[in-house]
Amino acid sequence: MHQSLDGAVNPMTSTGTKTEDSAYERWQQTVAARYKDRSFVARNRSGVEVEPVYGGLDRMGNEAEMPGQYPYTRGIYPIHYQYQPWMDLQIIGFGLPAQTRERMDLLLEQGGSKGYFDREAYNFIFDMPTSMGYDPDHPGVRGSIGDCGISVCKASDYEVLLAGKDLAKTTVSLVLNAGSPAMLGLYLAAAKRRGFAFDTLGGNLTNYIWDFFGHSGGTNFSPRGSYRLVADIAAYCSQHVPLWNPLTISEHNICEAGATNVQAVAYSIAAIIAVNEECVKLGIEPDSVVPRFGFHVRYGENFFEEVAKTRALRRVYAKVNRERFGCKKSGSLQARIHAQTAGSLLTVQQPLNNLVRNAYGALAAVLSGANGMTINAYDEALGLPTEEAVTLSLRTSQIIAEETGAVHVSDPFGGSYYIESLTDEIERRVFEIIADIDDRGGLIACIESGWVKQQVSAAAYQWRQEIESGARTMVGVNKYTTDEPEQYAVFQPDPEAARLAIEDIERHRRDRDAARCSEALDKLRRAAVDVSEGRAIGSVMENLVAAAEADATLGEMQAILHDVFGRNK
Q1: CA distance between the termini of the chain
Q2: Contact (Cβ atoms closer than 8 angstroms) between residue 369 and residue 361
Q3: 3-class SS at 248?
Q4: SS3 category, 479
Q5: Predicted local confidence at residue 10, as pLDDT
Q6: For 475, which DSSP code?
Q7: In the chain, how many H helices and how many E strands?
Q8: What pLDDT does 211 receive?
């Protein structure tokens, strides 16, 4: 409650009670004398009212929790960055595999691409046709080939991209939407061809194959079909590729679509609930797959709220998996988080300001205890990042790690009256949304009815109205603007990428064993039908690998999966 700070109302406490002659009472008297009849009202993006100051009474009755202890509010490790720094995973991907390989080598030379346990780590983003599961020669996609990511459509593309790399000492993140299942098949087939055992391969798959908001143009899978596919991939990986993380819930994408932080965390947890429920329905023990799930979280809009939402996400995740699904493994209760700075907040106006936005977003992620980090390039609002911009993003992470002292203490905000209270409030609101989703029949029903999309669209519209009216400041856009022309170098991918990609896939189809490929695709279709009907879970992923080995293309495999599991509407 926010009223005049004249001593009539206690504006700080909702959970505790003040004592006579307490420090708070003396503070309140000072405020009443100095700021008589004045009021303070502030709300963060999620609508949480922020008090002018926080004290111990805001946390009264809450027991102390240490890092590495359930429910992991303060982090999943007792000691974190002191012994295990975050992974630097700058986004890589443009043009053809050989062209992206040049950028990979640059980042490695500059001290990036560092994963855990002396593994190299790469974060691949794919062009829109690939992300949606189309081959380069699919009608209507030519203008997008290699434009905003790398074009990959067959197993041999990975042999070019990762030539000479020891895949047993390399972690790859495959960031794409509907094409995720078939893309993993291509990667595993390429690794098998080179003689690497599946149980040595490490990496992450976004597997973001459903669509909350319709922003993927109708090319993602149907909600019900997508959750069945996610369960199939998770079951296969738990048995055959145990170091692989088969699902990364993209809280980042939900925020980028316009959701508030509270909404994004709630819908992310609801997605985990839906996946777990699908696994239980199919007889898959959640504890066998959940430890390899993770989150992709956005940072950069409100510094303290971003820290608090991360702590709340970890806490809610642990409680839901233990109390709702009976998970017992510690790995099932520990939310692993890959951080990325906010792309939707990067501005064309005064783009150098984006360096500052990215730095603060990255610092919030570090103080939240994120496990991996992608810092966007400052010029991404203009086009694909230049080498200079990518290097500056990497240097931002390195400065935070090496110069600020942020890595010396686990959860340095632990015990902060403000952060702890905000964490509690975000948790409360997240559980309210989850309860609402349950009452509406679960997340799948809420996606099918359009309810989730409506909620996110309303939040996005409100944000846009606030920017346009000036109620919300965006420096350089609606305040502190300049009319001086600005010129910045913009990276241009190879204009010949589309022609070369199409020529390559035409050659590939001519040279492969057509009968062998056709037989493998027929087996994939039969396996997909079995899985869609609840039989032979794990066989879709098994047959995707086999089809990729037989030189089937991404688009050919994707067409079968879409036929069987449906598209979103």
Answers
A1: 43
A2: no
A3: strand
A4: strand
A5: 37
A6: B
A7: 20, 10
A8: 63
Question: Quick count: other Cβ atoms within 10 Å of Cβ 192?
Answer: 17
CA distance 347 to 252: 18
Q: Give the orientation angle of helix 514-532 with respect to helix 554-565, to 10 degrees.
A: 30
pTM exceeds 0.70 for this model: yes
**Residue 140 falls in which region: left (phi positive, over 0), alpha (psi -120 to 50) or beta:** left
Would strands 372-374 and 87-88 be described as parallel, antiparallel, or unpaired? parallel
Strands of 120-125's sheet in order across: 91-92, 120-125, 170-175, 202-205, 244-245
Query: What φ, ψ does residue 125 adopt, rounded to 5°?
Result: -115, 145
> What pLDDT, on the 0 to 100 scale, is given for residue 435?
98
Q: Which of 269, 279, 167, 173 is nearest to 230 (CA)?
A: 279
Which residues on neighbouring strands pair with residue 171, listed in sequence order? 121, 202
Helix axes 261-281, 223-240, angle to 10 degrees: 70
β 293-299/247-250 pair status: parallel
Per-residue pLDDT at 7 = 35
Compute the Cα dihedral for 215, 220, 224, 229 and give only its sign: negative
Give start and end residues of each alpha helix (H) in 53-120.
97-109
Residue whose C-alpha is closest to residue 25's, from 57, 60, 1: 57
Q: From CA 337, how far away is CA 249, in angstroms rounded?
A: 10
Q: Model confidence over 533-555: pLDDT tens digits?
A: 998 899 999 999 999 999 999 99
* Spatial distance between the Cα atoms of 368 and 394, rounded to a whole number of angstroms: 19
Q: What per-residue confidence (pLDDT) applies to 36?
A: 75
Query: What pLDDT is attached to residue 11?
Result: 36
Residue 204: what are its φ and ψ, rounded to 5°?
Answer: -135, 145
Q: Give every CB contact of residue 73 below 8 A, 6+ residues apart in sequence.
A: 65, 311, 312, 314, 315, 423
Would you state the pLDDT for residue 14? 38
Positions of the chain with pLDDT lower than 70, given as ranges: 1-21, 24, 40, 52-64, 112-117, 211-219, 491, 493, 569
What's the full length of the chain, in residues? 569
pLDDT at 444: 92
The neighbour count for residue 30, using CB atoms within 10 Å, is: 12
443 CB contacts (<8 Å, ≥6 apart)? 223, 267, 270, 271, 273, 274, 437, 452
Q: Is 172 left (phi over 0), alpha (psi -120 to 50) or beta?
A: beta
The per-residue pLDDT for range 398-418, each reduced to its tens digit, is 999 999 988 888 898 988 989
DSSP conformational letter for 111: T
What per-residue confidence (pLDDT) applies to 439?
98
Residue 104: per-residue pLDDT: 86
